[in-house]
Amino acid sequence: MKLTKFLRTVTEILAFLLFLFLFFNGKLQSWILIFGGLAILSLFFGRFYCGWICPIQTVFRPVGWIYKKLRIKRFSTPKFMKHPVVRYIILLFFIGLLIAIRVLKIKIPLLLFILIGAFIITLFFKEEFWHKVLCPYGAILSIVSQPAMFGLEIEESECIGCGLCQKVCNANAIKSLNNKKRRIINNECLLCFECKNVCPVKVISYKH
């Protein structure tokens, strides 16, 4: 587990440095190629981009850590925004915006503005609001990762129903079953492995 956390942290830092390098060299649009490549891989291995590469998630981590230490509570996702159609309306708007920028040849670091916007939002709202409603990249990956052959799974027969995994899941990708066991919704899982790290009976694993 310590190795996984170390590798994830190193990968996030390197990816964030690459993001900044592309930005300062006026080539931030190249990040779309990185996202596109990992979106294809998510068809098989799940949403590693979200948990290990995404610069937005990297920014979220220290914010979450500070808020936890200071015991600062954030607002939950507004109820009217939880309807699945809202997520895809936002995605369509984002795609339309990308097309408009391309057609009109407007030079704007859209990805940077999205990162700044996400940072501001997460200062007031729980991360779930971004991951499951507002993030256009998350919406895309939630679709393409549905047939993924690999993912984090809970061995339900051995789950003790403590709920610790749910408490650390910032994407709210773990649901409670009628028997109080837990199950991971794979196409919503960010593969951050936090649930695996806190499971007291070690029944969560990444597998086929």
From TrEMBL:
Ranked from the top, the taxonomy reads: Bacteria, Thermotogati, Thermotogota, Thermotogae, Thermotogales
SUPFAM superfamilies referenced in this protein's UniProt entry, alphabetically? 4Fe-4S ferredoxins
Q: What PROSITE patterns does the database record attribute to this sequence?
A: 4FE4S_FER_1 (PS00198), 4FE4S_FER_2 (PS51379)
Indicate what this protein is called per its UniProt record: 4Fe-4S binding protein
- Domain named 4Fe-4S ferredoxin-type: which ranges? 150-180, 181-208
Q: Which UniProt keywords apply?
A: 4Fe-4S, Electron transport, Iron, Iron-sulfur, Membrane, Metal-binding, Transmembrane, Transmembrane helix, Transport
Q: Name one Pfam family in it.
A: Fer4_5
Which regions span the lipid bilayer? 7-25, 31-64, 85-102, 108-125
- Give the matching InterPro entries: 4Fe4S_Fe-S-bd, 4Fe4S_Fe_S_CS, Electron_Trans/Redox
Q: Which organism is it from?
A: Thermosipho ferrireducens
Classification via Gene3D superfamilies: 3.30.70.20
